[in-house]
Specification:
By secondary structure, the protein is α+β, with helices and mostly antiparallel strands.
């Protein structure tokens, strides 16, 4: 696990290029504090750099890493879990390896297959291949989007890095807000790739590659989610046995490391199942970690996490999160996120990673199971009534009602009914603020575009493989909410503390299995993640009977209680034009209503607070 950066087609002189590489690399030191390495080729005016967190091949796995003749160099942020099998195949074809690193495999595989080598990689990665012979730079992001990659084509050259802050540290890019992107962020709570909230900075979408060479810059898709029809009728137990085998294999491969590997445990099915397998395979007693919320008992799951830890015999560690922890954490949180995100889990995950960092460099977690096996409420049976009503309620009536109703959940119902097409209705389920609200308090550039939820649509290639609206909604979560919200937060908060999170549920074989799994095995009536309910019988009975509870930090009761004064001061005091993205005079009456509890939609205040914190860290400076 690392932070990577680079420059191609540099228009700076070699000394300036090396200095820019160094600044980007140092800005990523939290991602890789163990060592730094960089390479610059004056002949191609290109270079790559890496801040490394040493997990595999501690002694010789330095990056950048090259093939035998030095013509292909690679930096990679992530882990390639099938590198032993790939290495054996490449050695049989005459390749010589100097290290035991998984990253060296990429260099030799690229020699053999060029850009198509990506399809052979089973793992999580944001990688860069510098091909000196062909004077080409290849960037790629893994299938699910577990690891990030940002880029900017500037007058000084083409730059890339694991985080947008590193691009700004190059000294060639200024931090300007993209008002259209901020519009979508406030509409959806996160921002789908390739756009970012920084003007001129883009992020590579999951499953995409980007090539920079003499012909220019071109971005292509190398993998997309595709649903498959089940091959034959099978029993529930048969499907469950296959998933159990795949999950056991995935956890085993994700435990492969030259440092101890721990596990996050929340007391829910996903993390508990991963920890259950990990405890049986770990060469030493597994260390588990959880975060608690003692001030909000309804959100505090310590008793369930402890139950799981006792059952698997782990060495369990806990850390508390209290309201007083939030204000001093905000600046670092916004800085490490790099872009505002609606997820309140970022607060808990930052604290959780800081706890894990005191004992391990790597943990396994349960991310991805909800998106693969239907864990979220909006894709379950209860939402079908909204789509049936769409056939009965006139669009004009629904639009009028949506503009009149103020309660957010009822307003969302009417907006779902008002959409002309079902894909647009799918996006409405993710809405945080509508356009009329944003127009009241956001100080947007009048000339900026206002895309609203348009970027939050399923690509046609994936949509064409969906057999029903249930799969279409699942696919929307997997291709947008998962990479640009859940995995973004997981990556930033863990790497801010120099901890790598591995995600066995997003193993290639499990993603392929889920894409061909019948809908009845994912949702059975009101039972979410039905197939996981069968595997959960291995867990303590009280855990197996639990309904899903996502990891969220209870910011709403904090903001309406002990932190009420802090929120007002943070968003309003001195927050006039020129200092923040909000119009203070228009935001204040809305804020008073929200703080008084007249808005029950979860996390809307947090969306404003994290946006202001991001502005303070990047734009205000």
């Amino acid at each position: 696990m690392c932070g990577i950066a680079g420059i191609a087609r540099s228009r700076l002189n070699p000394e300036q290029s090396v200095e820019a590489l160094g600044r980007m690399c140092r800005a990523l030191r939290h991602r890789g504090p163990d060592e730094e390495g960089q390479f610059f080729s004056p002949g191609t005016a290109s270079g790559i750099a890496c801040s490394r967190l040493s997990i595999v091949d501690l002694a010789t796995g330095h990056q950048p890493i090259a093939c035998e003749d030095g013509s292909v160099l690679v930096v990679c942020n992530g882990e390639i879990y099938n590198h032993p099998q790939l290495r054996a195949r490449l050695e049989s074809r005459g390749h010589s390896f100097r290290t035991a690193s998984d990253v060296e495999v990429i260099a030799h595989l690229y020699e053999e297959e060029g850009e198509e080598c990506l399809d052979r990689l089973d793992g999580m990665f944001g990688l860069a291949v510098l091909d000196l012979r062909r004077r080409k730079l290849l960037l790629a992001r893994d299938r699910c989007g577990m690891k990030p990659l940002y880029y900017a084509d500037t007058p000084s050259g083409f730059l890339f890095a694991s985080e947008p802050g590193a691009l700004l540290a190059s000294g060639t890019i200024s931090a300007g807000p993209d008002w259209g992107a901020l519009d979508t962020h406030l509409a959806a709570g996160f921002l789908p790739a390739p756009r970012t909230c920084f003007l001129g900075v883009s992020k590579l979408p999951a499953g995409d590659r980007l090539v920079v060479d003499a012909s220019g810059v071109r971005r292509q898709t190398w993998w997309r989610l595709r649903y498959r029809a089940p091959e034959r009728a099978r029993s529930d137990e048969d499907y469950a046995r296959e998933l159990e085998t795949l999950l056991e294999s995935a956890v085993r491969s994700h435990l492969a490391a030259d440092v101890p590997v721990g596990a996050y445990v929340s007391g829910g099915w996903d993390s508990s199942l991963v920890a259950w397998f990990a405890a049986r395979m770990s060469p030493s007693r597994l260390k588990t970690f959880s975060v608690t919320f003692p001030d909000v008992p309804s959100r505090d799951e310590r008793r369930f996490a402890r139950m799981v830890a006792q059952d698997i015999g782990s060495e369990h560690h806990e850390i508390e999160f209290r309201p007083a922890d939030l204000p001093p954490l905000l600046p670092a949180l916004a800085r490490h996120l790099g872009e505002p995100c609606h997820s309140t889990a970022s607060l808990a995950l930052y604290r959780l990673a800081s706890l894990a960092a005191s004992s391990v460099k790597t943990v396994v977690g349960g991310e991805g199971a909800d998106e693969l096996f239907a864990g979220y409420t909006w894709v379950q049976a209860g939402t079908e009534v909204h789509y049936r009503l769409r056939r009965l309620v006139p669009r004009r009536l629904a639009r009028a009602a949506a503009g009149y109703v103020t309660e957010p959940r009822w307003r969302r119902l009417w907006r779902v009914l008002a959409c002309e097409a079902e894909p647009a209705a799918d996006s409405e389920w993710h809405r945080v603020f509508d356009a009329s609200e944003r127009d009241r308090f956001l100080l947007a550039d009048p000339a900026a575009d206002k895309p609203d939820l348009l970027p939050l649509r399923l690509d046609q290639e994936t949509a064409a493989t969906c057999h029903n609206r249930f799969e279409r909604r699942l696919a929307l979560d997997f291709t947008h909410r998962l990479p640009e919200r859940t995995l973004l937060v997981d990556d930033r908060m863990s790497m801010a503390n120099s901890v790598e999170v591995r995600m066995p549920f997003l193993d290639r074989a499990i993603v392929d299995f889920a894409s061909g799994l019948p809908s009845r095995m994912k949702r059975r009536g009101r039972q979410e993640k039905y197939i996981l309910s069968l595997l959960a019988q291995r867990l303590p009975e009280r855990i197996a009977r639990r309904k899903k509870r996502g990891l969220v930090t209870p910011v709403d009761p904090y903001f309406r209680g002990r932190l009420r004064g802090f929120v007002r001061e943070f968003l309003l005091d001195g927050n006039g034009r020129g200092f923040g993205p909000f119009d203070r005079s228009k935001l204040e009456p809305l804020l008073d209503g929200w703080l008084a509890g007249r808005d029950t939609f979860p996390g809307r205040l947090w969306a404003l607070v994290i946006l202001q914190a991001w502005w303070n860290e990047y734009i205000g400076r």
